[in-house]
Write a structure and sequence with these properties.
Two copies of one chain form a homodimer. Helices cover about 35% and strands about 30% of the residues of chain A. Chain A is α+β, with helices and mostly antiparallel strands. The interface between A and B is large, with 37 and 36 residues. Chain A binds a DNA duplex through helix 2 and helix 4.
DNA sequence: ATACTTGCAAATCGTTTGCAATACC
DNA sequence: GGTATTGCAAACGATTTGCAAGTAT
């Protein structure tokens, strides 16, 4: 569990003013302890039903700012479905086709034995493994 | 190189009438020999600049029909960027951030040593590896 | 006081769809 | 001729943006 002052500090460290909206969204994202995967719509819904007045546009902006600041990571699984993941460490995902949900796979559960060298003049930024599963 | 009658046959086998538009798009996709990665916009541009009269909506419909017929595979790399891959075999991708291009990685260049079991009641459909690279 | 944020509504982007006109068998 | 396909334009869903009003430092 993360205290609200810890969230304030985190925002300050990222150069973002701790506004009411950012604090509320930050608490939803980082306050629960467990890693989360959310879309902008989902997070907006949570904020609103919790009583926080915030517009969807601000949720989008905030998620993008958090991502730029390295507090979140984008995960792309389906067209028209952009998730933001609070787990910014090394890990992969299960993607459940049908319900369109994402589940973390801890990095130590997947090991990639061989990878090709990056094409000439390019460097590897990240390797994403998505295991598509179906019920 | 694939002859136009071979494309006609392929369309017929998929239950699709070999119309002028589908033949032209099929020739662009499958006629060149090498595997291709295209977006609908790109393919439409190619068709138009080659003199084929075809609407963007038809390109979208055709790509979806080809995919449903197993002639193409969808690859998702970035939000708002759906690629269609003529290589339907087992393989992975380099995604070049910045230019937003895709490169195939042959299946035998990647080996995944360990994978977690699928969550209870689910079966693994496919494992996608995307190696994000940057110049 | 000043610069940064927010909210709204409009704009944009990629993609899909309804429907009348057209092409294929 | 009858059904599948096309093109257009409108509809769509997700995301971004311009700008005036509000808020943090």
């Amino acid at each position: 569990m993360m205290s609200s002052s810890a969230i304030t500090d985190r925002l300050r460290a990222a150069g973002l003013r701790p506004t009411r909206q950012r604090l509320a969204l930050g608490a939803l994202l980082f306050g629960g302890g467990a890693d989360r995967h959310v879309t902008a719509e989902e997070l907006h819904g949570e904020a609103v039903s919790q009583g926080t007045r915030v517009s969807l546009a601000t949720v989008y902006n905030t998620l993008n700012q958090f991502t730029a600041a390295g507090l979140l990571r984008e995960v792309m699984v389906g067209p028209g479905r952009l998730y933001f993941d609070t787990n910014i460490g090394d890990h992969h995902h299960f993607y459940v086709e049908g319900d369109g949900t994402l589940l973390d796979i801890p990095a130590d559960k997947v090991s990639i034995a061989r990878l090709p060298a990056a094409p000439a003049g390019m460097s590897v930024e990240r390797v994403d493994v998505v295991v598509r599963v179906r019920r």
